[in-house]
Amino acid sequence: MTASLAADPNRSRGRAHAEADRAPRGPRDIFQRDRDRIIHSVAFRRLRHKTQVFVAPDGDHYRVRLTHSIEVAQIGRTIARALGLNEDLTEMLCLAHDLGHPPFGHAGEYALQAAMANAGGFDHNAHSIRLVTKLETPYPDFDGLNLSWEALEGLAKHNGPVANGPWALAEANESFNLELGTWPSLEAQVAAVADDIAYDNHDIDDGLRAGLLDLDDLLSVPIVRRHWDEIERRHPDISIEKALRALVRDMIGTMVGDVLVETRRLVNSASAATVDDIRAAGRSLAGFSPALAEEERALKAFLYERLYNCPALVPVREEAQRVVANLFEAYRTDASLLPADWRREGDEVLRLRATGDFIAGMTDRFAVARHEELVGPVDLPDRF
Known about the structure:
By secondary structure, this protein is an all-alpha fold. Helix content is 59%, strand content 0%. It has helices spanning 30-39, 42-46, 65-83, 87-96, 105-115, 124-135, 149-157, 167-175, 186-210, 215-218, 222-234, 240-269, 275-279, 290-308, 314-333, 348-360, 364-374. Helix 9 crosses helix 14. It has a domain at 186-308. The longest helix has 30 residues, at 240-269.
């Protein structure tokens, strides 16, 4: 990999708003400042009380959106460094990729999608863009965090080009063209695959810890069985607990190694020599090899069947959706229940979107508290 494929802070397309503030900022380039703006944002801090897999987990060792994002950033930095990409931009994209998640994760998102159907719906990825371009307001001269074009581009399309994107993304794109029809930088593509690697493996850890995954069933997945057998070969007397920790480490290592080899191969086959070549390639150039991609899909299928859609989580997810739906209806019916800054007069679409913005910013426990205050009791078990 050559340095010409890395996003160059000195050649950034800049920010939507000129910044004339001469206050001290330290020796940081534009991508380093982007990363730091995410870390210091209110939305990032709120991730510590937002669902990853389990709603309001009672155990200190379960992942939440914040710890997941940090783990994604660690994997993303490792890949970026090995490929000679810009580590700061990669880290920023990893840290920010889940900012737009509402309370209760995907369960809350489904409820907001339905509640906002007459106002364009809700999409957590588009809401991440809305947060960093409009809703976070720490600066005196403009709304949003005023991130670089490369940062916004990566957040908007780290999963690939966006056709007919959600309203929140289209709105942001109107004021700062992110070229939604092209592929993003390699840094953004690396952030996307780092997310897959993190949640594939760490959700195994959490699922086993919660007793929702059975180890014998898990070993029916080929990629897991292969790594487990190798761990037993290397450490025949290891405890189950330590073997499970080794399993997660080894599988992450295998996936990262595969991404490095395959990404180099894809870049070479595309004859990509510049960042613009990456955007014009017409396909992702960072990812798993075909063989590992097949194994990873089998692992995902197992996790969806045995963990994400397991019977024990269904009533929890339904109750979480009820909480979000009831809160939205309460605020829609009586806007005076909203804080003054979130009330909108006149246009119904703007009113509904502001209500969605307010609820999407809630943590799990804040949503529960507001529901108990405004609507009634919440029946969420302590464990999940």
